Amino acid sequence: MKLLEKTLERSELEDMLLSELQNVGREIGIPGVSKLTKRDLILAILKEQAETGGLLFRRGILDILPDGYGLLRNNGYLQGEGDIYVSQSQISRFNLRQGDQVTGKV
User: How many C-beta atoms lie closer than 10 Å to residue 82's C-beta?
Assistant: First the structure.
């Protein structure tokens, strides 16, 4: 796996043509780029960037607690060790709501 010179943000990737995304995917070692849809390729690039940059890429269902902060739950709304804290400011900033499926770098 090869690191890119700079981290590409989702908005930058969405503005690229599929052929440009395929080139980026090949450059960082994503297999089968020609078979991926644009959306799937963008997600694969973001995931690869996060993992090679030492970050983890996680997904979960947002459970907003009475105190205003939230937790990303991996197993429906059941509490678990893999729950990820989401601050009240992030919930407000991204206009998140109870039950939203959220994916991001942690």
Answer: 12
